Structures are given as C-alpha cells and as structure tokens.
Amino acid sequence: MRRLAALSALALIAAAQPAPKPKTPSEIIAASKPAEWAAIPADDLLVMDLASGKRVVVQLAPEFAPVHVANIRRLARAGYWQGAAIYRVQDNYVAQWGNNESEKPLPAGVVKTPPAEYHRALKGLRILPLGSPDPYAPAVGFWRGWPVAYDPRRGTANLTHCYASVGVGRGLSPDTGMGGELYAAIGHGPRHLDRNIAVVGRVVSGIEHLSSLPRGTEALGFYKDRNQDVPIASVHLASELAAPARPRFEYLKETSASFAAWLHARKNRKDDFYIRPAGGVDLCNAPVPVRPITP
Amino acid sequence: MRRLAALSALALIAAAQPAPKPKTPSEIIAASKPAEWAAIPADDLLVMDLASGKRVVVQLAPEFAPVHVANIRRLARAGYWQGAAIYRVQDNYVAQWGNNESEKPLPAGVVKTPPAEYHRALKGLRILPLGSPDPYAPAVGFWRGWPVAYDPRRGTANLTHCYASVGVGRGLSPDTGMGGELYAAIGHGPRHLDRNIAVVGRVVSGIEHLSSLPRGTEALGFYKDRNQDVPIASVHLASELAAPARPRFEYLKETSASFAAWLHARKNRKDDFYIRPAGGVDLCNAPVPVRPITP
Fold first, then answer.
1. Residue-wise DSSP of B185-231
2. Phi-psi region of A53 (alpha: psi -120 to 50; beta: other; left: phi over 0)
3. How many CB atoms lie within 10 A of CB A151?
4. Residue A257 to residue A132: CA distance in whole angstroms
5. Nearest-CA neighbor of B289 among B31, B4, B8, B41?
6. Which residue of B has its CA nearest to A223?
7. Of A172, A215, A222, the CB nearest to B12
8. Residue A120 forms beta bridges with which residues?
9. SS3 at position A228
10. 8-state DSSP, B141
11. Which positions in chain A touch B178 (Cβ < 8 Å)?
C-alpha cells in the first residue's frame, strides 16, 4: 500500500471511478459491444518476428496504397525479409528495417517503381470528422479504423503519420520505394511526411519492441556497425500461417456509439485526475482502439 | 556507396542542397549567428547521471512553475535523488523517476503542497505566435525558448506537453506533487495533460536514454520488479558543479531572423525530398533548437 501511495504520481489517471462520474476512454472500450468491432482480414496483417522472439504486427492499408501493399504481400510470401534487419532507429522519428546493404533480387510480380500513392480520391470514403482543428490539413477524421487527413476542395485523402504509422522508405522523387524498406514512426507523429511518402499501414501490436531499441549514433539514426543491426527472423502475412497460429485483431468501428463516446472522452478528459478538459484532441492522440481477438 | 544507395530510403531528407534550393531547417541552424542564441543559466539545468553512465539534462522553467522549480532545486542540492530510480516507462507516454517506494524525509524549505502551477498569467510574455491551428488551445507559440499555449481572452499561458517535456507526478487534486517524482514525455506529445499538471521543463540532452528504456509491463508502464528499476547515480544542478565540469546549453531566440527562417522551413519543407510542403506545423513538431555550448 505504501508503494501504491507513493506511486500515486500519475498512476491514478486510469483509476476506477464511482458510477456517476464520466467514464474514462478505457472504461468506454471495456463496456463496448462485440458488434461494434470489425475484424482485420488476415491478408492485411504483416507479422514480423524478430530474432529475439519479439513480435511486431502491422496492419496494411490496401485502400490507400494498393500497389505498395501488393508488393509488400509478394515480398512477404517470397521470404524477401529472411535475413533482413532493423538498421536505423532515430530518436523521436522512425525505426526502419529491410535489406539495407544487400541488393536482393525481387520476387516475380513486384512492381519496381510504384506510382506515388501518397494520397487517394476522397470519393468513396465516408469519414467521421475529428472535429478539432489540425495544423496540417483542412480536415482530419477516421475511416474504417484509419486516421485520415482530407481536403474536400481538392477531393483528396491520405493516411496520416501518427505514432506507429508505417511507411515506405524511398529515395528522391520520382522514386516512391518499392516496399522493401519500411519504417514505423516512434516519436511525435511526423505529419510533415504526410503526402510526401506512401503510408502503408500501422503497427497494431508490438510497437514497443521498435520504440525501445537503442538509437543509432550515425546521421539520421543509422546504426554504425552492422553488428548493431537488430535481426529479423521472419516476416509473413497472417494469411500464410496455419489458422490456429494466426494473430487476429479487430478495431472499433468509427460508426459505433462506443467510438463516439470514446472520442468525446478523449477530447474531454474529466475523471478524477483531470481538472480542465481540453475540449479538443490531436488526431494522433486519438489512436483508434485495436485489440487482439481471443478465441 | 552501394550501402548509401540502399540507405537512400529517407536518408536524403537532410542531404545538402545546391545553393539556390530552399535551405533545410538544419542548414538554417548551421548558418545562424552566435548572437541569435541565448545561454541557459546554470541554475536552470538539472543534470541527472544514470548509474549506467548516461546523462540526461533537464532545463527548468522557473517562469512557469516557480514553487515547483524552487523545490526541485532544493531537492537536488540536498541529494534527495541519491538512490532514486526510473521506475515507470509507459510506451508512447512517459518515463518517470524519483524515490517511489521510499518515504524519504524532505530537505528543509521544500514546500510540501505547492500551488497548482498549471498555467500562469499571459501578461509579461511576448509570445511569437506559431501561426498554425492547434487542437488544444486558442493559440500557441514560443517565448524564451519554450513552447507555450495561451488564451488571450482568459489571459493565461501554459507550457505544453511535447516530446521531452518534463512534468511533476502527482496524485488527485488538490495534490500538485512536490517535485520529487518527475516524468518526461517519450511519445506523441500528451497535450491533454496541459493545464492539468505542473510542467517544469524539458529534457535538452539525453532524452534518448529515457525513450529507449524497456517498457514496464505493469499497468501504466510501471516496472514489475524493483530490480528492473533503472538506477540514478546522482542529480545535481549544473550550478553545483565546478565550472569546467558544467554542461552548458543555449537556445535559438525566437526573436532572431534565423528562428523565423527555421520556423518557415519547418512549415514548408521543400528540399529535394519533399514534394508537397504542409504549409503548417504542429507546435510539438517545431522543437526550439537547443545545442551544447562548446568552449
């Protein structure tokens, strides 16, 4: 108890509240109904097992970067990332992995120079607006579990760079990267990269295994020596794994009542810990709830 | 060279540009004049040496939380954090340190229940506006090297929770924390904590030694076992150290021409890598340049 008392620093943020108090975001999630969640297809889950035994799972976004995602699926199925490694970890920016030094031959069907899938048509997306101002885009919101920025005047939409977003490393334009070198954001969402690079998904599990890696000491966070690289054991699509071994995840639908309540609570934290609700929220501080599906 | 070519993924963001091209933020900083920088007083630098030999330096903000900062200075001078540890690391949130389990007696002069220094009067601050919309506050900007949110109507201003911001752990209000338990933000800026907790400064050097620590597996990122704690060797004010041993830092004045050019470049990245400048920036993606003063 003494320890708990001392820990009280911040620890009470998520403490349980008496009934009449406003619910915390986590309490709202806990009280949600199963039908408010949507399962993520097994073909959209990229499972990266590090040699250390730690697992990182990325949800792919074929609706936003179809050619890049098709490439990534082909690379995964062909075992392209066997022997690959995490070779760059830049503090407050990205962890990046791939084949780096090797010029591995590409599997059949991989498009070497994909189009610039940096944004897509807004048409066809029914976006739930965040309802808070954004420094980077005319509007931002959610669609099928994704954080999206959009411009109704131009009719475009793009996935945003938030914590755990995954994008495709590239050289200078018109090179868009073919998908072999991927990075995940591990600091404050680098939104200035939005619309300048192909975002292909986000880490839905295990981001802490990337964010807690030692930072590289070379320029841009590259590791100095190849023996500092963090080896990757395998990268597979969940759909390649035997059904019982597949990791499964679901996201809270933005069309659900629980999502609306959760977003409201994120904007207006008002449990025992919070005194002054902000009345607004940054898109990247409202990460769509994703959870494992347990059998 | 082959390695460089393969690395080109993202690596070219900061590559040098031919003369007529717009300068990158780093090039603007490199070309700034010495008089555009202001030295940080030695009494405002809290030097935390971890037992591992790694050093974290925090700049204190007496202009925003004078009673808490006075407490922290007293605690440092009295050796309060000898035997202290980092005992909580929550992914995409905070690393927290202090004396946790012990109920160490407080040195003389420490105010046990400081006032709620969550914001201050706007009067007296000459803030350079960021000029981009903010989801949390009517306006945001910079004052003497600090990122600040403010409300001209209410006449209040507060330090914001950005990456590397340092705040005072507390229990439930009216407890404001006396300053013995501190945390640094290690993920996307938790701006919802603004105006709900005392921000006392920011890490100006060594944040990567906190952000790369193993995440705690208990609720809220607390380490499960005390032997997982990361021991702190000492915490001193730079002013306590012999002059030659003092770490010294300076920040780029927001009143300088280089700051204006740097902020413009942060909003409008337009070097060889960037194709579409955002035209705006998040306050937390414009961290005020701070650098060591080398003799």
1. E-SS--GGGTTSS-EEEEEEE-HHHHHTSPPP-SGGGB-SSGGGSEE
2. left
3. 15
4. 19
5. B31
6. B7
7. A172
8. A157
9. helix
10. E
11. none
Q: From chain B, pick out residues whose CB is under 8 angstroms from the CB of A163.
A: 92, 187-188
Q: Are strands B45-50 and B37-39 parallel, antiparallel or unpaired?
A: unpaired
Longest dimension (CA), chain A: 62
CB contacts of A275 in chain B (<8 Å) are 116, 118, 173, 195-196
pLDDT tens string for chain A (295 positions)? 333 333 444 444 444 444 567 899 999 999 999 999 999 999 999 999 999 999 999 999 999 999 999 999 999 999 999 999 999 999 999 999 999 877 889 999 999 999 999 999 999 999 999 999 999 999 999 999 999 999 999 999 999 999 999 999 999 988 999 999 999 999 999 999 999 999 999 999 999 999 999 999 999 999 999 999 999 999 999 999 999 999 999 999 999 999 999 999 999 988 888 889 999 999 999 999 999 998 7
Residues of chain B in contact with residue A156, where contact means CB-CB under 8 angstroms, are none
Q: Length of chain B in residues, anyone? A: 295
* Facing residue for A9 by CB, picked from B11, B12, B169: B169
**The token pair that represents B24 in the structure block:** 């990158």
Tokens 């009470």 -> residue: A12
Secondary structure (3-state) at A260: helix
Q: Which residue has the tokens 């012999």?
A: B242
